[in-house]
Design goal:
Radius of gyration: 13 Å
Order of helices and strands: EHHHEHEEEEE
Helix content: 10-25%
Number of strands: 7
Length: about 110
Amino acid sequence: LKGAGPFTVFAPTDEAFAALPAGTVDGLLADKEALKEVLLYHVVAGAVTADQVVGLTSADSVEGSPIAIAVKDGTVYLNDSARVVTPDVMASNGVIHVIDEVLLPPAD
């Protein structure tokens, strides 16, 4: 993600990581390939701002799996559960949307 981009990152809060089941973070840190898949599942190619996100029903992650997008009562949800809590944090190589839950790619 240090490249020129642009990228859109759905970045979980520290509280989102803390809410994962016990041992999940340690397990990911021990399995670099699984960690890479989880991290890349939070990234979409291109700079997708909030006004664009609300018009989408899904977006393909850099990991390869789609992320479902829905707007309910004016709030954007990813995969029906993760909520965008801070949209449009602009970065030099894209945009960040802070979310309240860690997204896990679908199991193969």
